[in-house]
Design goal:
By secondary structure, the chain is an all-beta fold. Helix content is 3%, strand content 39%. It contains 2 helices and 56 strands. The N and C termini lie far apart (54 Å).
Length: 598
């Protein structure tokens, strides 16, 4: 075939879009990218099934030949109207009948079906269970409103809108508004069984305390009181994301608790686009546990509760969380929990120690067995195999298979995606654990939040062009965890700016403890490495960053760190909590280079 050259569009410092021409021959292509200065072929760890992906497969698009067939709920004996509020007209049976007809329709599977709600207010008991390729569609999110029943902790269903059982289920919700005005567990369930869910132009107002008070009177004689309380963390999420190929776009959503939440053991969330939304979050705005290949861009997240918390990329279920793009968002008002606006989380590991043997091809490593101090036996397929000390220190590879000592005569064996550039030997110390990294954070603006931090393992990340005002700063936080390592390696903080260095800090005796998201971790500085071991933070770059006021740079024990062309302004040396210099480097840091800083 004749090679095809595609010119990139929407080019930024960290991303580019390539549009495939409609006449491109469907086949398998090798890929290389040239930015004018250098060219490199694609060789990426996509998953443990595709550990060294160098090609892409182009296929003919699958396009529906006809528009989805529409099933109008008003044709089933129920109409939305102004009176469907104080005296609700229950449209549940009409909705169920329309869905049943859509499912029976012989063309629905290939053509798709719409359950259509005309202009008006529609009261529904719920839950709504959607079959394959069936969507809920309104006349517009300012014209059509769905109201779910009032529930409590006993009566609320697991989800109000959920797919039927099966695999590869796709459904959609578009052009309507949804009200949930009582206790809920979850509104929309993009389950692990789904493939291709689309939620577009949907407004949600989910307020579990609507016209209510918390339960403050034990006698229960307050008619406004409810027995439930605020749920922090990832509890009671508005939208569960566990499927693949999903879209959440152009929406306006308010949630009592957390808004978007992925989780699973093993994790299943992949290939998601969350774009151009306005989110009002009582808990976390997003919670990406084990998520992969996610684009979260051009969104606005505003905390609406004094316990609104930040947003983790985590590996609680083991495995890996990678290839996540967080770009061009506005995130504000994070006050609760540890306050970190962005964090990595879970400190688990599977093996820390020496090497016993390395195969001739360098891709199978035998180690000693695990020990009682191992904190996590979750799967580490796709996880990180990192060299902690020795000639290869700072290098890492991905784990595509492994066997623990329970079946290997007291030893462990790890199969890697490729051999190390510097060959391994028995004198090196290594760490095997879940992987968090290879993510891009680009031009997102933070206001009145805690720290942006890589807590525990954080590998090969780019943080570019971010802005913070009244926030906890940018922290690289690799840790020695008493019996095992949680290293940060190969992270780059480039062209970020603290526009206003004032922030909420804990200074009192009761609040003076350095919690995980507290800015005192940086001793009042704006950028830095927090560390208790120089081997836990390695190959870190701070370049072209600016602290406009009341902040500086703090480098605790670390190895091979570059501070280049950074600027600190409006920071008096006598300021409480600050060092007497704008750039403070621990005597236990090794190989720290400061160049052209002001």
């Amino acid at each position: 075939f004749i090679p095809s050259t595609l010119k990139g569009i929407n080019v930024t410092a960290v991303s580019v879009v390539f549009l495939l021409p409609p006449d491109l021959t469907p086949t398998v292509y090798t890929v290389s990218i040239n930015n004018g200065a250098a060219e490199a072929g694609m060789d990426v760890f996509n998953s443990h099934d595709y550990p060294n992906q160098k090609t892409i497969s182009v296929q003919d698009p699958i396009l529906p030949s006809l528009k989805p067939r529409r099933f109008n709920v008003s044709s089933y004996g129920c109409k939305g109207g102004v009176d469907n509020m104080s005296m609700p007209i229950d449209c549940s049976h009409a909705v169920e009948a329309a869905i049943a007809d859509a499912k029976r329709n012989e063309n629905a599977h290939s053509r798709g079906a719409e359950i259509y709600f005309d202009v008006g207010r529609w009261y529904i008991q719920g839950p709504i269970i959607l079959p394959q390729n069936v969507s809920l569609v309104g006349a517009g999110m300012d014209l059509t409103a769905l109201y779910f029943r009032q529930d409590n902790q006993t009566t609320a269903p697991p989800s109000y809108i959920t797919p039927e059982e099966g695999k590869g289920i796709s459904f959609g919700i578009s052009d309507l508004c949804i009200y949930v005005l009582s206790y809920y567990n979850n509104l929309i369930n993009i389950s692990a069984a789904t493939d291709g869910v689309k939620i577009e132009r949907v407004r949600v107002r989910a307020n579990a305390f609507h016209c209510r008070d918390p339960a403050t009177n034990p006698s229960g004689d307050n008619p406004r009181s409810v027995p439930w309380s605020f749920q922090g963390g990832g509890h009671n999420p508005l939208i569960i994301i566990q499927g693949v190929n999903f879209v959440i776009k152009d929406c306006d959503m308010l949630s009592t608790w957390s808004l978007i939440h992925s989780y699973g053991n093993p994790p299943t969330t992949r290939y998601g686009l969350i774009q151009n939304n306005v989110f009002w979050n009582g808990g976390a705005c997003y919670w990406f546990d084990g998520a992969r290949e996610i684009v979260f861009e051009n969104n606005e997240c505003t905390g609406i509760a004094l316990m609104a918390m930040g947003n983790p990329i985590a590996s609680y279920g083991g495995g890996y969380a990678h290839h996540i793009y967080i770009g061009n968002n506005i995130i504000r008002n994070v006050w609760g929990n540890d306050r970190e606006v962005q964090t990595y989380d879970n400190a688990g590991n599977t093996y820390y120690g020496k090497i016993v043997n390395v195969s001739r091809d360098g891709m199978t490593v035998t180690t000693y067995g695990t020990n009682p101090h191992t904190k996590s036996f979750y799967s580490v397929i796709g996880g990180a195999f990192i060299v902690i000390d020795g000639d290869a220190a700072g290098q890492y590879r991905r784990i595509i298979n492994y066997t623990l000592n329970t079946t290997l005569n007291g030893y462990c064996q790890f199969t890697l995606n490729k051999p190390f550039t510097v060959p391994l030997n028995k004198h090196m110390t290594v760490q095997a654990m879940p992987f968090r990294g290879r993510n891009i954070f680009y031009r997102t603006q933070y206001e009145d939040v805690g720290a942006f931090q890589f807590y525990g393992i954080g590998v090969d990340n780019l943080i570019y062009g971010m802005k913070m005002a009244r926030a906890g700063g940018f922290i690289n936080w690799g840790q020695w965890r008493e019996f095992f390592a949680n290293p940060n390696v190969m992270n780059q903080f480039i062209a970020n700016q603290i526009t206003e260095g004032n922030r909420a800090e804990h200074q009192g005796s009761q609040l003076g403890m350095q919690t995980y998201g507290d800015p005192l971790q940086l001793n009042g500085n704006s950028f830095g490495i927090v560390s208790n071991n120089a081997a836990m933070n390695r190959l870190i770059i701070f370049r072209g960053n600016i602290a406009e006021s009341n902040g500086g740079f703090l480098i605790q024990p670390a190895t091979d760190v570059l501070l280049d062309s950074n600027i600190v302004r409006n920071t008096p040396s006598e300021t409480v909590s600050l060092s007497n210099t704008s750039y403070t480097v621990s005597p236990d840091a090794v190989g720290v280079l400061l160049v052209n800083n002001d």
